[in-house]
Amino acid sequence: MAKNRRPRLPAAQATAIDKSMALDRSRSGTVDLTFRAIDELAHVHDPIWEDVSALAVIGRSIFCTCDETATIERVVLDEAGTNAAGHANFPLGEAFELPDGPSGEMDIEGLAIADGYLWICGSHSLKRDDPEEGGLADMEDIDWDPNRGFLGRVPLIDRGDGVFEPVATIDALDGVPGRRAAMVKMSKSSKTPIRKMLAKDALIGPFVDHPCKENGLDIEGLAVQGDTVLLGLRGPVIGGHAMIVRLEMQETGSGTLKPRKLENGQRYQLQAVDLDGQAIRDLEWRGDRLLILTGATTDLEAMQSVVLIDDYDPGRPVYPAGLLARILDLPVIRGSDHAEGLATIGIGGQDRLLVAYDSPQETRTDAARRRLTTDLFEIAEAAAQSDRPAPAAKKGGKKRKARSRQHA
Fold this sequence. Notes:
With 408 residues, the protein is an all-beta fold. The protein is 2% helix and 41% strand.
């Protein structure tokens, strides 16, 4: 019987590529993030250095989150570009009325910086209980944490020397408009505006009420330019394609955020990206390039890579594999180092990729120093050449050629 074989995701190759730019190249350096003690922080009850789930960088400020809290953490990179300390903690409950209170788990999986704002997104996902004393009966419980339905932004104020601070409001000054924190409306119900909207979608709808890590709705990537907000989904993966939800956000007169209607008459547009069955763990959007950190939808150990889309068009419905370039393969370590946070950081006048990991291996953490070691990688600047064969034509149809892209 003939099988429908999925060809491999194309790798970025160059006519003369040195070993430092190999797909499985070693890290070029590390950055140690050092945090304050838990008892010094508001609304934090878990070791941040063990659970960093998202990254965003501006200047020397590295923003990150622990997915067990509803807080944003900031550390500041030193001149050598190897250590980031001076930890400051920003509880979102001080700027927003959160349905589960300032200590309720938000499961923040996405951070992005655009136009003087820090954007924050919760996973919007349901979760299944682990089996404990109740055995299998425990697994029948599927829970909703109301703070997980958060999508909002806070203004960033420039304190100088590359240090930025999130604040609730910035007053207008010298003709420059003021800015304020704003979020999409929330309630204790799991029927948040985004979940409710996607529940009606023909593709996403059947998965909205499935738990995360079981191909249920699970937002893990966030990227923003102007009013355009991209939500990268860890789940569901549909037909081997990862999904991106595009929103065009507007701030209402009452100070809340709301997606505006698009050309299709809806308040969102889906984009399918052929990641060969992998899911989205994070997004990084710089200029016309979109970087996608890929990984598994479920808890299984799987390949994890960084994929580049050059000349990225957020309005394109489908990105076939021939328009993607795999520029980095990260090591797969059983039980640890699951890549979850991706950002671009400037060190020594050169942009590099900064990668943080969930379930970090023991050598990455130091409980006494409250230290987490993240990795730096050079960014490959290579010509992408697809190693995928052209898809077979459907009966009566035409063959499609896998396209290659040049990456400057």
